[in-house]
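One record is given unchanged without comment:
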Amino acid sequence: MPGSTPAPGGAPPAGTGPAVVVRSAAAGRVRLTVPWLRARPGCAGIVDERFAGLPGFRALRVFPRTGAVIVWVRPDLVDVDRLIAALDEAPPAGVPSRTSRSVPDSSTGEVARLVVGGAVLALVGVRRLLGRPPWAPAGSAGFLGAVTVFTGLPFFRGAARTLGGRRHAGTDLLVTTATVISLVLRENVVALMVLWLLNIGEFLQAMTLRRTRRAIEELLSIGEERVWLVRDGVEVDVDLAEVGTGDVVAVYEHHRIPVDGVATSGEALVDQAAITGEALPVYMREGSEVYAGTLVSTGSLTVRAGSVGQDTVVGRIITRVEEAQADRAPIQTVAAAFTRRFVPVSFALAGVTYLLTRDARRAMTMLLIACPCAAGLATPTAISAAIGNGARRGTLIKGGTHLEGVGRVTAVVFDKTGTLTLGRPLVTSVVTLDPAVTADEVMSLAASGELHARHPLAEAIVRRTEEQHLHIPIHQACEVVLGMGVRAELDGSRLLVGSPALLRRHGLELSGVAREWTSRLRAGGETVICLAHDEKLIGMLGLSDAVRGGADTVVRQLTDLGVTRIVLLTGDAPETAQAVADALGITEVHAHALPEVKLQLIRDLQADGHSVAMVGDGTNDAPALALADVGIVMGSHSSHVALETADIALAGNDLRQVAAVVELSRHTLRVVRQNYTLAIGVNLVGVVAGAGGSINPVLAALLHNTSSIAVVANSARLVGHTPHLPSGAAGRLRAAPLEERRVS
């Protein structure tokens, strides 16, 4: 189904707003964009209500910030039109929100609690130093109790939700219990000091996480709210939301390109680091492909929009990152279970301490120091930061499960066409068979014959000649010989450009040297194009689906990272597949592989005990991508089915990111282990000290904060992490080399 199919039935009814848009529909998984949901995120619960009871409905995920809704259905019982109809009408303005999410405390409330608590503690300190000054409050016990309750509101609300069965027991219940004990003991100052310190820790944690999210969002945002839209040759200042596919926008120096598309005029240096990871600006001119969110450093361009909004590379990254936050890695699930189970242990330790010492203060200290807050933060903060890191580099990781899984991969299966190779023919060899003719002349004459042909091989010859800025003579007449090549008339002479069969048809036989070169080029996986001028064979061109720049480096990097099986899998002929494999150092090759063969290979590798990653780009790769432990898709030009099926998408088609994401996963798991060591280590030291009476509740609160903030800060390092890869990981993608061969 097209990527932007509007809801059926023409324009939406009055008052319903823009129509629901179908982004993709494949294998019972439908992605929709619901405009009214993005405008009213508080109504997310209504989406669930409208699908309840729908025959064939299986599961649902809602993302209010982007208006995205993903539905799993049985295709034989429910079609896309019924899903659209269920969501097409926006809820009336008076309908209250039905989202189950609790509204988090605002930063204003956090600051107010810190200021009030700090001010009262300062007054208490002054009173104890100077006696009660005339401006100090009277009846301070009740006043301190009220301030303590105000300062601890977030913890008390969390404890109430726990006791109401709406969430698992956690930090809030422990802190609330300790506070109640303090108030019963009439140690109001101690309770207030503990809560104030805990609020400082919560505020610093929230601030650290906000800065992490803000850094990611700034890197991924387009950054332009209004753009210059070109209408009938006139530039009009319009809102970005008004730009549609096919529109032309003008972009000037120091502004970000607002759409994905192709430059129609102008020249510019464009900083694409946020999308492709390239360190240096890239020269763009008419015909160059550009991405939304990239910055015009110098010059200006007009760009015809191919994708806008959420359909751009940036839009897909943001959507995937949002979805990924809802997916929990196995290690994250274990962490949550650990935190839930440790809370009863904390209460038990506090109870045992009180029974042995009959000291309520020491039991309260035990509650605070044994609190598993830092352990609960260890995994989710690291996973979120790593997903953000991947997004910055153009790697869309769809969830923590897949981030963790790719780090455990021991076998990688590569599709060839469009993955290890560019997926389009390039001129890779020029052979001159006449000493009086240069390689440039062979290219120019071949391009002259192919100038008006529409075959991919002809277009590759013309394109390469233009890239080398060679003169292309204009022929006077030409005739396409179907399946063989072109015959052209050039200034009274005849050109034959095509296969050896074309030459034989016109009475020209290949010499021994020419036959030798034909065999040699074909053995290297190249398609042979012969050039004859006035009944004489003067040269040959070798064209092939050139190996993607950096592919050989990726293979070496994966081997160095411990991947023991690297397999090339393709539907191409064995000779072509082997030529690519030899160029990349891959020893295991499977050619003539249909989708069923690809599936069986994945199963065989898994049966041998391997954790398998499949890297592909086409619809025929989708079954293998789904079956593999981790499916990685070359995202820029991949089919919708492959994009929906895969677990990780490389938005910029940079193959180097395959090795980079493996390294990122393994580094993330190391950071998680560091976090646990830090959190549990501080808890154990604190438990021993608290049981022995060496620390008081205030110091326990300080240790609790310190370990939590340290865990968050350690995880935040992942946002800026640069993969440390061997074998020249910093190398840039390069064009396929053109090999010139001269025969005397």
Observations:
- The chain has 26 helices and 26 strands.
- The mean pLDDT is 75.
